[in-house]
Design a protein that fits this description.
two-stranded parallel ribbon; alpha+beta; 2 helices; about 10% strand; about 80 residues
Length: about 80
């Protein structure tokens, strides 16, 4: 049965506090969900202009690309 894409309900939108940069997580990794939730929290709290990010070493090293805020890269 074909899917009627035009009638499908939109469940959620990209948070405004999340850029269009592609995630670098491995396929099947759940880190992308957490990254989206952080963007949603920044939006809901209205703190985008006061947010400073910390990009850790490892999978989330490119976090400074995903959020439109000032960020630093730190060692562990």
């Amino acid at each position: 049965m074909p899917v009627d894409v035009e009638r499908m309900a939109k469940v959620f939108e990209r948070p405004k506090s999340l850029t269009d940069a592609r995630f670098t997580y491995c396929p099947g990794c759940h880190h992308g969900i957490i990254t989206r939730i952080i963007g949603q929290a920044i939006d809901e709290l209205g703190i985008a202009e006061r947010t400073v990010g910390i990009a850790p070493v490892g999978c989330s090293v490119f976090a400074y690309l995903w959020y439109p805020c000032d960020a630093v890269q730190v060692a562990h």
